[in-house]
Write a structure and sequence with these properties.
single chain; 33% strand
Length: 233
């Protein structure tokens, strides 16, 4: 788990951004990290992590960055008969909630003070949040439409304490081959897969990938007419 000093160093190197909300500091990897594939273990743990700037204490501990199947070698060489736990990947935005000094703190991937953080906080208020732990949600609201429609609300995903991560979603036990085949016909975003050793990968459905490509095609800039054929097609 990164210290606040590590996060500050990433900001100084131009590899992360920082959002300040009073004594709360929230860090997120910079866009170029994703576009230029600059991932390091420190940047993987820089995804909306929030600290108390007065003492460096961690306040919210969101998911690390997860890679898709085969992305950056993730799960390359894993035998297809490997048993995996599969969890539905909900198509919304992530929110991390923690009780800190008696107050509910909710961070998104980059802030504790954005509209998105505020919308999530309204939905999470009243939920039991164990002191010293982070509860992770996927938030689905009309103000933030996504490719795959989901039920409105803050969907409980997982609990994270230090480096331990416990999923709270219903799960199914597949082999890796079965999970790959299932995502060919699955009508949601996809699955999160977890092996017995705790390692995780994302698996997007063909349905989601196809819809995403169609949506991007509709919004492709006019300066790239050759990318998708004739302009306006």
């Amino acid at each position: 788990m990164n210290t606040m000093e590590t996060q500050e160093r990433l900001v100084a190197q131009g590899l992360a951004t920082k959002s300040v909300n009073g004594h709360l500091a929230t860090y997120k990897y910079a866009r170029k990290v994703m576009f230029e594939n600059l991932w390091t273990p420190e940047l993987i743990e820089c995804r909306g992590h929030t600290y108390d700037s007065r003492n460096g204490n961690i306040v919210t501990l969101p998911f690390p960055k997860f890679f898709a199947y085969g992305e950056n070698g993730n799960w390359d060489g894993v035998p297809l008969d490997t048993p995996v736990w599969a969890y539905k990947k909900i198509n919304g935005y992530m929110a991390a909630a923690a009780m800190y000094e008696g107050e509910l703190v909710v961070s998104t991937t980059g802030s504790t003070k954005s509209d998105y953080a505020g919308w999530a906080k309204e939905l999470i208020k009243g939920t039991y949040i164990p002191e010293g732990e982070t509860v992770l949600f996927e938030v689905c609201i009309p103000q933030d439409p996504h490719i795959v429609p989901e039920n409105y609300g803050a969907h409980l995903l997982a609990l994270r304490c230090k480096r331990e991560l416990y999923f709270a979603l219903p799960s199914s036990l597949f082999t890796l081959a079965e999970a790959l085949e299932f995502c060919r016909v699955y009508k949601y975003e996809g699955l999160m897969l977890q092996k017995e050793d705790g390692s995780i990968c994302k698996l997007k459905s063909d349905y989601y990938i196809g819809k995403k490509l169609l949506m991007r095609r509709k919004h492709i800039p006019d300066i790239l007419p050759g990318m998708w054929g004739e302009k306006g097609s």
